[in-house]
Amino acid sequence: MAILPIVEVPDPQLKTVSEPVDGVDDELRALIKDMFETMYDAPGIGLAAIQVGVPKRVLVIDLQEPAPHDHEEGEACDHDHGVINDPRVFINPEILETSAEMRVYEEGCLSVPEQFADVDRPDWCVARWLDEDGKQHEERIEGLLATCLQHEMDHLEGILFIDHLSRLKRNMVLKKLEKSRRLKAA
Ligand code: GNR
Ligand code: NI
Fold it and tell me: What CATH code would you report for 12-185?
């Protein structure tokens, strides 16, 4: 059990094309466990192995929906409702089909901390992957999960969400990140 350090821009590791996993074993399951721990601690809704310095085609996602509230209308509410966890593991994921329709979502990335920008991606996709037991899945994925899966699969190709922006916007984001790091260091 370990919270691993997260690799951040401009670390060149983030440009690595990750290698396929050949066999799901206990060592891989231990990495996946550490990846969940690291993601929940950050906190984030997804994490690719390269973000903890491991160039393997593995990613974890948990959209962590807030638990539903069951209060009377207008009732004060300041206690913790917790979240519904839905941990998902994707090993060697492939996208088989994508929608023509696109969806815009304001994305962030644990490797580009505290920076956000709108990214256009296919609204849904059909994906195939292995789970932590080595079992194959094929599913049509939509909504936030589709956005997040495509963001994570980009990491496997060495691509960050800022690479989808114009050069002007990307440089603005990177400058803002530099500035916030300087302020934190001071
Ligand atoms: O925590 C994360 N939030 C997020 C928000 C919108 C689109 C994608 C993401 S993934 C990100 C965690 C991360 O960096 N995964 O690689
Ligand atoms: Ni990311």
Answer: 3.90.45.10
Q: Is 92 in the pocket of ligand 1 (CB under 6 A)?
A: no
- Cα distances from 61 to residues 40, 70, 77, 116, in angstroms, run 10, 27, 29, 19
Cis peptide preceding 66, ω within 30 of 0: no
95 Cβ contact partners less than 8 Å away, ≥ 6 residues apart: 125, 126, 127, 150, 153
pTM above 0.85, yes or no: yes
Question: Which ligand is the nearest neighbour of the Cα of 161?
Answer: 2
Q: What is the pLDDT of residues 135-164, one digit of tens each?
A: 999 999 999 999 999 999 999 999 999 999
Task: Identify the nearest ligand to the CA of 61 by its number.
Answer: 1
149 ligand 1 Cβ < 6 A:
no
